[in-house]
Amino acid sequence: MLPEEMFQSFESEAISAASIAQVHKAVTHEGQEVAVKVQYIDLQDRFHGDIKTVDILLYLIGLMHEKFDFSWVLKDLAHTLESELDFENEGRNGEKCARDLKHLDYLYVPTIHWNKTSKRVLTAEWIDGIKISDLDGIKKMGLSIKDINHKLCKCFADQIFHSGFVHADPHPGNVYVRKSEQSGKAELVLLDHGLYDYLKPNQRKSLCQLYKAIVLKDEANMVKYSNELGVKESDSLIFCEIIVLRPINPATVGVHGAMTSLEEKYVQTMAMKHFDKIMDVIKAVPRSMLLLIRNLNTIRAISRIHGHPVDRHYIMGKSAIDGLYKDENRTSFLDKIKSIWSRWVFDYKLQRESFQLWAQRRLLRVLIYFGFVPNFEKLESKYEQQMVERMA
User: Fold this and answer.
1) For 191-282, where are the E strands, in sequence order?
2) pLDDT(172) > 80
3) Separation of alpha carbons 38 and 193, rounded Å
4) β 165-167/121-125 pair status
5) Which of 55, 76, 147, 169 is catalytic?
6) How far apart are the C-alpha atoms of 353 and 216, rounded to whole Å?
7) Range from 98-107, 297-306, 310-319, 377-386 carrying the lowest mean pLDDT
């Protein structure tokens, strides 16, 4: 059946195009505006050939540069990448995402028109919105960047820690923002559900415990739950830093604010100095963790575009605690009580640490004022430099 027969109107010129498909705008015979995602005609025919070509190239690179042998990544993810070509699977992923996050009234997933969907064509509800990276557009809509960033971190944290069914490609083009007609506040719309991965329940619980331990700087549990995810004790700190994508200072509780320039320098130094260890860690963890790390890095990148208006580690830590008491089928009243208590303890420890840091800074400023200690900014800069040198 031709598009002109299937739809009341169909725009032949694509409104967007990506690596595997292009999107056209259309109107159904019932008068509904829809987005029609059409896969490139020869893609499935050449997929396996392309994978084999890349595999050979990675093998040759590995022979020339042993440290850069990434052929194992392609072998592990080939099936996941192939599933992205099945648009019926993408539709099912989107519907599961909507069910998993139905408790978030600010999160929306477009409805699939199954009678106009096949393995190579996906027809979904048309969405008017802007990319989450469009700061000017967000401001023109009168929406809060801080509110949007909080909602972004919360929805993906709940995917990771509550269901373990994780959107692996949440780049700005796949997360739209629109103004809710009911509340007048920001509503997030998740698009493109082709690439997902799934954490097994035991892996999800271990990750919940690990993230909680990272935020609270509980070194014993950082080692324990890293080990449950396949990482040996000597590499547990590196693994934890990969998870939160920043340095971890065991001297303080919490993972506060955006990275300083010195911390960014530390991360770069670590990547070069300990590349082999980082590769060992990535090879050791469950394969589903690879796309999860990609998810975390994308969320960090979007938060950076927004100017880091919220503490995403705190948001994710609270979600991780709730996830400890989540069962895939049910959550008992006792589990809810345990979750509330654990969150209270978590909040108390972080608030206590924040107060201590605040009090120390105030005291230091008083001492500076009376000339008992050197200039605060110079002292802080020197301290941070020493911290980076010690951790590297």
Assistant:
1) 196-198
2) yes
3) 15
4) unpaired
5) 169
6) 10
7) 377-386
DSSP state of 161: I
DSSP state of 112: B
Distance, first Cα to last Cα, the chain: 62
Structure tokens at 331: 């959550």
CB burial of residue 221 (10 Å; 0-12, 13-18, 19+): middle
Distance of CA 75 to the CA centre of its chain: 23
At 122, list the tokens.
């996906």
- pTM of the complete model: 0.83
- pLDDT (0 to 100) of residue 373: 64
pLDDT at 384 over 90: no
For residue 235, indicate whether it is catalytic: no
* Spatial distance between the Cα atoms of 299 and 137, rounded to a whole number of angstroms: 19
In the beta sheet, which residues pair with residue 122? 37
Cα(100)–Cα(190) distance, integer angstroms: 13
Reply yes or no on whether the pLDDT at 380 is more than 60: no
- The percent of residues above 70 in pLDDT, for the chain, comes to 89
Within 10 Å of residue 197's Cβ, how many Cβ atoms? Answer: 21
Helix, strand, coil fractions of the chain, as percent rounded to 5: 60, 10, 30
- How far, in Å, CA of 374 to CA of 381, rounded? 12
pLDDT, one tens digit per residue, over 39-88 is 998 888 888 888 888 888 888 887 887 767 777 777 777 778 888 999 99
Specify the length of the chain in residues.
Answer: 392
Report which residue type is found at 175. V
Q: What is the reported pLDDT for 72?
A: 74
Contacts of 66 (CB under 8 A, 6+ apart): none
CA 321 to chain centre: 17
SS3 23: strand
Residue 347: both structure tokens together: 């909040």
pLDDT exceeds 70 at position 1 = yes
* Beta strand ranges found along the chain (DSSP E): 9-10, 16-17, 21-27, 33-39, 107-108, 121-125, 130-131, 165-167, 175-179, 186-190, 196-198
